[in-house]
Every structure is written in structure tokens, then in C-alpha cells.
Amino acid sequence: MNKTIEFYFDFSSPFAYLASERIEAIAAKHNRQIVWHPILLGAVFKISQQVPLTQIPLKGDYSLRDFARSAREHGIAYNHPDPFPIASISACRATLWLRNHSDEALNAKTTEFVHTVFRAFFAQGKDITDVDVLGTLATSLDIDAVSMKAALGEQSVKDALRVEVENAIALGIFGAPFLIVDDEPFWGNDRLDQIDRWLSQGGW
Amino acid sequence: MNKTIEFYFDFSSPFAYLASERIEAIAAKHNRQIVWHPILLGAVFKISQQVPLTQIPLKGDYSLRDFARSAREHGIAYNHPDPFPIASISACRATLWLRNHSDEALNAKTTEFVHTVFRAFFAQGKDITDVDVLGTLATSLDIDAVSMKAALGEQSVKDALRVEVENAIALGIFGAPFLIVDDEPFWGNDRLDQIDRWLSQGGW
What we know:
homodimer; alpha+beta; Glutaredoxin; 4-stranded mixed β-sheet; 11 helices; 4 strands; about 55% helix
């Protein structure tokens, strides 16, 4: 099995979305496999005493400009969602249900599902807090929506997300996207080029 | 006169230091003149309701690793100072005294002084809150230390710093380094490469 890039994200994070659109090319270049780790920034922010970026005076206004500018630079569709931020718990659980599934065919759809949900929220203005919307997105990828929606209420799936969040906090993760490459932590979409150089050079 | 890159910084900001070591090459590449704007992050953080990066749970520990790693990548000497952060008010006033001076020979030493003070703090472990230390650094650049120390107490110099901080807040500046290029704002050392591309492409 290839070595990994551990990609921690919340579906409500604009910079995690932007990074998700570029990380596969970096992973492919270095023969790395991406492991998707959906987490809840709300839980993480309680520990790290932070508030959503857009709610910080001055910094919030700048961040909106920065999201759009960074998206334009890389040709990524971006429409700042309203409402924002949102509770991504159902989307996170759906992702973990796929990622941890014993059925390899379902398992293999995890990456496509992550992209589909991110784009639905940040490019297409869809309400990804709505399980029926998530069901429709699943159907578009030939994932059985009824099974997926049922899974969202299962204790094992709820536990999987709780464990992801607890593990993330234990690893010192305080934001998104947060990437771990061979135990080296990198926070932020603006670290992607640095990760690329890090992998090329074997660190420094 | 060349067009400018407006460089807002606090001498207590690690990322402003790292950016100060790289911005001249970018400015030279695009025939830009750097205008140094020392500001007090403490005053800015009151408006933007922030605390120093290193004091944020989880994020603080990561930031120390990130400072050192970013410095190593670019071959910049870095020893995280103790105590940190510090009150840079005297160093800021000294910089503005030089930058605004009617004597062009003194004026021309502004950039060298900024580098010298930054390196004294972040590479050489010197206490740049001490006006005698600043005086010694000034002397090393053939700047008259007695005149400089006297200037630190002058109302016009104090006012100059107050105005810089007020203007920065009015411009929406909430952190350091903060760079403005043709009215386009960029926050963070990790935006330097983006500024370089922005200037090469004339924006996007």
C-alpha cells in the first residue's frame, strides 16, 4: 500500500474545499494515497478557543476576499455559501460510513463523495445539512441513498465521527485543512505547495 | 518613483520577520519600492479580538514548529525569542524616525535598520525593547544613537506611530505581515509567492 497523506477537514471550511481540489494532484505526483478525515471544527474550536474565521472583526472581511481570490487563482468554482458556517455532521458521518465500509466498491467512492459534497456546498449553493440533499448527491454517484441515510443514525457511524474528532484533537489539530505527512503536520490550504516541496526534498 | 509594496509589520511577529527576509527579492523582480510600516499588533488585536498566535491552545504549539520549519526552508536564521511576544514600540518609533526623516542619508538606512532589528530579535536573541540595544544597533549602521534615542521621546515621533496604527486599522489590517499591492491586501508570510504571481500576471 502506498504511503499516505492524512487530510483532515470540515465540509464547512472554505480552505479545506480549495485544498481538496488540489491535493490529489500532489498525492499522485508523490505516489501517496489520501486518507480523508472529516472532523467537526466546532468541537475543535472549543478546545482551541477559536471562532469561525468570517466572524472575526477585520479578519472576517478579508477572509471572504481571500477565499474568492485563492479560488480564482486555481480556477476553482467558488460562491460563498449563505448560511455559513453550517453543521456538517451528517455529511461527515456519510463520508465515514463510506470510508470505513467493508464493501470495497462503496469504499472506493469516498473521494468522489467528498468532492461532490464540497462542490455542492461551495460551488452550487446546496444545503448539505439536509440529509435528503446528501441522499440525492449519493444517488448521483450510484451510492444507495436509503442505505446511506439509514447509516447516519447508526451508533457505529456516530461513534466513528466522535473517534475521528477525539483523535484529531489528540494529534493537536486545531483547524482545517490540516494535513499530516509522515508525522509532519501542516495546517492550511496555503501549505500545499510547501507539502509538495517537502515530499520532493524528503523534508528539510 | 517606482510603484510600491506597502509592508505592515510588528517587530514581534515571526512571520513578518520571515517575510522581511524575502520581500526585497520580490520587490526588485517587479521594480517595486518597499514602504515599511511598523505597527503595534497589540493595538490591532484589541480591535480584531485576537491573542498572540503562540498563546492559542494547540495552534500555539504548531506555530512554533511552523516558524522554524518555514525559516529552515528558506535558509533564514531563526531562534524563537524568550520572552515572546515583546513590546516593540521603541523599535517602531525608531523606524518611523528614520523613514520620515528629512535627511535622505538617514532615510536611506530604513531598510537596513528594519533588517538589523528583526535579526537582532529573531536570530541573535537580543532584547530589542531596550533602547540602549537599539542604540548599539543604530551605531552599527552609522546612525547617530544619541539623536535616535532622543527622537524616541519626541511627540512628532510618537504621533507618527499612533497615526500608522490608526491608518492600518482603518485599512482593515488585523495581523502581520500585511502587504498591500495596488490596493490589493495580502495577509501572511505564506502569501508572498501569491503576491509574486499576482504582480507577474497583473492580478487575476
